[in-house]
Design a protein that fits this description.
This protein is an alpha/beta fold. The chain has 11 helices and 7 strands. It has a domain at about 85-235: 2-Layer Sandwich (Nucleotidyltransferase, domain 5), CATH 3.30.420. β5, α7 and β6 form a beta-alpha-beta unit.
Length: about 260
């Protein structure tokens, strides 16, 4: 993607506020950020960056180092400061197929299965991949993510994701994968209302259709995020780098949602 002047005007002060500050300020910061965006939008190898985007290794090192330091996550949180809509919040998860190059992260003394669990990689019916869970605000914009190996269920991630909200929502909306008496009780105890349909083998519960029909907002969110090829397919070996891709894509989605950008 091409970084427009309007997007950079919003993005630059956020990056300056959350990036690590060294004695020597980074040169060509806009070009480096543009190169990082281009690589993840196109899903290309770092070495395939066009020459006009600058040295590929500068973009690669910056992205990986900032991922480890949590810069991209802080960037997303700063983009959200203009207002998170909590009238409705949406929980959802999706399976991301991992490219063969995503395997092979450093073992760090752990055997293969433990390494895969640490890096949120695992086998499911869809193949080797990662389960990405998200909680989104009323306008279908990312609040936070959670990663798990591909075969993991979404429900255990729901309560930790709710804990990342800046306040108490009015409605918590999720599909049947979140159907659980204990989870609904947790939502009520927070002061919110669940809109989660029951499974076919469960007793019916109240789930207002006029609320649940809005769940397509989180589905449209996934459609926007997966336009980034590095989101639709995981190329990153480590969980921290893949979360960096997700946080960066979500930040740009927030910036694009602002009028006039």
């Amino acid at each position: 993607m091409a970084l427009t002047n309007g997007q950079w005007a919003v993005l630059e002060p956020l990056i300056e506020a959350c990036r690590p500050h060294a004695k020597v300020p980074p040169q060509h910061l806009r070009r480096t950020i543009g190169a990082i965006l281009w690589r993840h939008d196109n899903g290309a190898k770092w070495r395939a960056l066009p020459a006009e985007e600058g040295p590929w290794w500068i973009a690669a090192q910056t992205f990986i180092r900032w991922s480890r330091l949590g810069v991209w996550e802080r960037l997303l949180k700063m983009a959200q400061e203009r207002g998170v809509g909590l009238g409705m919040t949406f929980l959802d998860g999706t399976s991301i197929r991992a490219h063969a190059k995503a395997a092979g992260a450093a073992k760090k003394g752990a055997p293969g299965p433990e390494r895969d669990k640490r890096e949120a990689l695992g086998r499911s019916r869809g193949g080797f991949g990662t389960k990405v869970c998200v909680i989104a605000d009323s306008r279908g914009r990312v609040i936070s993510f959670s990663l798990a190996p591909g075969k993991a269920h979404e429900l255990p991630h729901a309560i930790p994701l709710l804990a990342t909200l800046p306040g108490v929502p009015f409605w918590v909306v999720g599909d049947r994968g979140y159907s659980s008496h204990a989870f609904r009780e947790h939502v009520w105890n927070l002061g919110a209302r669940p809109a989660i349909p029951s499974k076919s083998n469960e007793a019916p519960v109240a789930c207002p259709s006029w609320v649940y029909t809005n769940r397509d907002r989180v589905e449209r969110l996934w459609a926007r995020l997966k336009e980034w090829r590095a989101v639709a397919t995981r190329y990153e070996k480590t969980a921290s780098s893949f979360l960096g891709v997700l946080h960066l894509a979500a930040t740009m989605d927030w910036i694009k949602s602002q009028p006039g950008v």
